[in-house]
Amino acid sequence: MSATQFESKQVPGGEALRLQQIRKTYGAADAGGVVALQDITLSVAAGEFLTVIGPSGCGKSTFLQIVAGLMPATSGRIEVGTREVNGPPEGLVYLFQQYTKSLLPWRRVIDNVAFAVEHRGDLSPRERRRYCEHYLELVGLADAAQRFPRELSGGMQQRVAIARALAAQPRVLLLDEPFSSVDALTRLELHRLMLRLWEQQRFTAVLVTHDVDEAVFLSDRIAVLSARPSTIGEVVETGLPRPRDRIITPEQPRFLELRHYLLERLLSGAAHEH
Ligand SMILES: Nc1ncnc2c1ncn2[C@@H]1O[C@H](COP(=O)(O)OP(=O)(O)OP(=O)(O)O)[C@@H](O)[C@H]1O
Ligand SMILES: [Mg+2]
């Protein structure tokens, strides 16, 4: 198989998500249980980049884990494409905040990426290796293939995790603050990388974060979660042109306006009123 066969036209593209009246209570509601999510209704278009922002502890990870089928909702319905979610759906990949949770420390970098394609009978061992090398090239880590995760910086490890997530050819990529555990400059580089890969592959991306700048820079739309019991206060369309530039885009009036508005909403807790 030639390298060109791994190009973006081969990937399956995004699937739409529909969440209807999702509610999550931890513990018994009548015995001091915590209502983490209350009545979340949200649709995400195929190939859209949607971000959910909200204060710490408002239920962002809970939300994402329910979408991923890793945890059941107390009530409500989730559909990926036309299928109802009752467990981890095929084509959906979850990228964790901590790369240490994502990577297997005893495996070399290339073998960590290979983890995503081990089940694929359509690739010979040689093709599998070439395929994984392709994804390492995409994240700029071709030279690190034979190293172990502990021999890499935090940002490089997160890039390995991104390569592995994309090697699985997700139709939906769920991102739980995957850029928050690296330094500020690396974070900007990872934003740039993520947008480039998303523009090539057009999976549906759902990111949760408390970082307003990150949300505005990356997204098509931003859903604002209130403090607990969380509901979606509003959904804002960013309307910023693409491709976005890590330096120029944040200087645009629309970026600054959105940033101001969303920070005010989060700091005042105004989203709670809706
Ligand atoms: N397994 C659990 N059992 C009981 N309560 C839980 C559990 N997991 C989360 N919670 C509670 O549910 C609420 C939402 O937690 P969650 O981790 O989803 O918030 P978050 O928005 O992701 O927070 P952070 O921004 O700090 O990552 C919190 O009050 C938390 O204490
Ligand atoms: Mg969280």
Average pLDDT reading: 90
Beta strands, count: 10
Total helices: the number is 8
Q: What structural category characterises the helix and strand content?
A: alpha/beta
> What's the overall geometry?
globular
From the alpha-carbon coordinates, what is the Rg to the nearest angstrom? 19 Å
> Which segments are poorly predicted (pLDDT under 50) over 5 or more consecutive residues?
270-274
Strand content: 15-25%
Tell me which ligands are bound. adenosine-5'-triphosphate, magnesium ion
Write the element-wise H/E pattern from the N-terminal end onward.
EEEHEEEHHHHEHEHEEH
What is the strand arrangement across the widest sheet? 6-7-8-3-9-10
End-to-end C-alpha gap = 54 Å
Percent range of helical residues: 25-40%
Largest sheet: 6 strands, mixed
Which features does this protein show?
alpha/beta; four-stranded antiparallel beta sheet; six-stranded mixed beta sheet; 274 residues; disordered C terminus; binds magnesium ion; binds adenosine-5'-triphosphate; globular
